[in-house]
Write a structure and sequence with these properties.
Elements: E1 10-12, H1 20-34, E2 38-42, H2 47-55, E3 60-66, E4 71-72, E5 80-81, H3 87-94, E6 98-102, H4 118-129, H5 131-145, E7 154-159, E8 167-172, E9 186-194
Parallel strand pairs: 1-9, 2-3, 2-7, 3-6
Antiparallel strand pairs: 4-5, 7-8, 8-9
Helix pairs in contact: 1-2, 4-5
Length: 222
């Protein structure tokens, strides 16, 4: 009687946008292997989602992003507009993808306790493995909260560190309110992740690798 199965995990030397296309390739392979038809892509500018739309033909793509009007301050390039703020990119993605705009489920997880510390603890623990794993989990919960996924559904989820993709996981979906219950989100398999999950802030590219110039157009003009 089988007690499990052996599977491979691909380890990147660095975190960052430079791994995006390989992540999508590995995600597509694992989806085919497991008969999974849906792939969740975390994408704040829409550039990773555009690559997914090109490379993941034949799969149902769910793009998860922040609420419109959100921004990330002091990135090293400037303040980054997120939530796929570019109207043209957003409209083009709508033609082939399901887009979920929402709020990070961890953001107010500790509001009832008055002290904003629990979310930092959760994120710090996940960052020891890969910040992309946390993004994969959050994206699936956000998509489930929006009714795009159903509780218990198995999907491939792709996320990353700051910009681009460097992590992919097989995730069992759940709503964010069920995070720490028996029905909570489960990371069943890690398909790929950075070997070194840490990166600097602001990004200076000694531990994070990728082409930052392509993101300058999304920076908030002051």
């Amino acid at each position: 009687m089988s007690i499990g199965e052996k599977k491979s995990i691909y380890y990147f030397d660095y975190c960052g946008e430079s791994n995006t296309e390989k992540v999508l390739e590995l995600a597509k392979e694992r989806a085919k292997e497991m008969g999974i038809e849906k792939i969740v892509i975390a994408s704040e500018t829409g550039l990773s989602a555009q690559k997914a739309a090109t490379l993941l033909n034949g799969l149902s793509i769910i793009v998860v992003t922040s609420a419109l009007g959100s921004k990330v301050e002091n990135t090293g390039l400037g303040d980054l507009l997120i939530g796929i703020a570019d109207t043209t990119i957003f409209q083009n993605l709508q033609k082939t993808c399901t887009i979920v705009r929402g709020t990070d489920p961890f953001h107010n997880i500790n509001a009832p306790f008055r002290e904003m510390t629990n979310d930092k603890i959760i994120r710090a623990i996940l960052h020891c493995i890969s910040s992309g794993v946390g993004v994969c989990m959050l994206s699936v919960m956000m998509a489930t909260d929006q009714g795009v996924l159903t509780t218990g559904e198995r999907v491939i989820s792709c996320g990353g560190s700051f910009l681009g993709l460097d992590t992919a996981c097989v995730v069992r979906a759940s709503n964010s309110v069920d995070l720490f219950t028996e029905d909570g989100v489960i990371v069943e398999e890690i398909v790929c992740k950075p070997r070194n999950p840490k990166y600097e802030w602001p990004i200076n590219q000694s531990l994070w690798k990728g082409d930052l110039d392509q993101y300058r157009k999304f920076m908030l003009k002051k």
